[in-house]
Amino acid sequence: MPSFLACYDGLNDKALMLQQHRTFLAMAPQLPREGMDHHVLGGGGDNLADVRLTSRKKGGGKIRVGFISTNFRAHSVGKLFIGLVQKKGGIDRSKFEVFVFSAQGNRMDDSAKQIFGGADEHIVLQPQQAPSVAALRAANLDVAVFADVGMDPYTYFLAFARVARVQATFFGHPTTSGLPSMDYFLTSELIEMPPGQAQSHYSEQLVELPGLGCLYYPAPLPPPPKTGERTMREMLGLAPGTRAYVCPQSVYKLHPMMDQAFAGILRADPQAEILLLNDPQKKVLVQHGAERVVCTIVLANEIIFANLS
Known about the structure:
- By secondary structure, the chain is of the alpha/beta class.
- It folds into two domains: 4-209, Rossmann fold (3-Layer(aba) Sandwich); 232-307, Rossmann fold.
- The protein has nine helices and ten strands.
- It has helices at residues 14-27, 54-59, 76-82, 110-118, 129-138, 153-158, 232-236, 256-268, 283-296; strands at residues 63-68, 96-103, 121-125, 141-146, 164-170, 184-188, 205-209, 243-250, 272-278, 303-307.
- It has a seven-stranded parallel sheet, sandwiched between helices. It has a three-stranded parallel sheet with strand order 8-9-10, with helices on one face.
């Protein structure tokens, strides 16, 4: 997505994302307009807000909620959802019926198996947009939660369509979608600006969930090294007797202002070594970010890039 890195600029990107939506509509007139296809959902042309959830609540049935992403795997987005979709400890199954929608080609690793296995139903969407929209609508969802609008073109353009009575995007991608088809942005109260200030950054209605806003499982720790094996510090390339400052974020997402923070740490602590992450799968982006960081900081020898793999 052309706007993928925009959310890491530290600015209000609402106007940018609204303009991106208008630009794509102008370039591709076949895209859903506003995503408000009332006739498909039985709205009869009425205001969609008037028919959201009312029919199913009156009937006493469970609320049908669907989660949609191409990243339901060992990925930061996948980690946000593993706990939420589980039948035990996750979303209350006495009130909700949980659907998970993934795309063809979604890597089938242990995280994916946990997410798909935790859902009441797992549906694989087709590569083409039209049959995918049809499949989502056929599920008769009360709520559709797009996990990460803006992470890739497939789900971004899928989100143009109205596929559920209520639609929301999640903070798997931490910026507004700019899409009128998105009613709500689900986020954590711990990561937003002070009360009353954050809403102006979103085209959606902001919903700040308590705590983290998700059920996040702790990452498994590696076993302690056996006699003769290298320690974790040695494997990461840290020198003996130094203090490691770890910034566990992708280098290409680091704002240039962060470079000065790194430089300040190195100036203040002669024993400091800063550990940044290197992702071999994003070689060009990582190289660009690394070159910028190293050029900014005089003590470049104290910056260590550790491979994610």
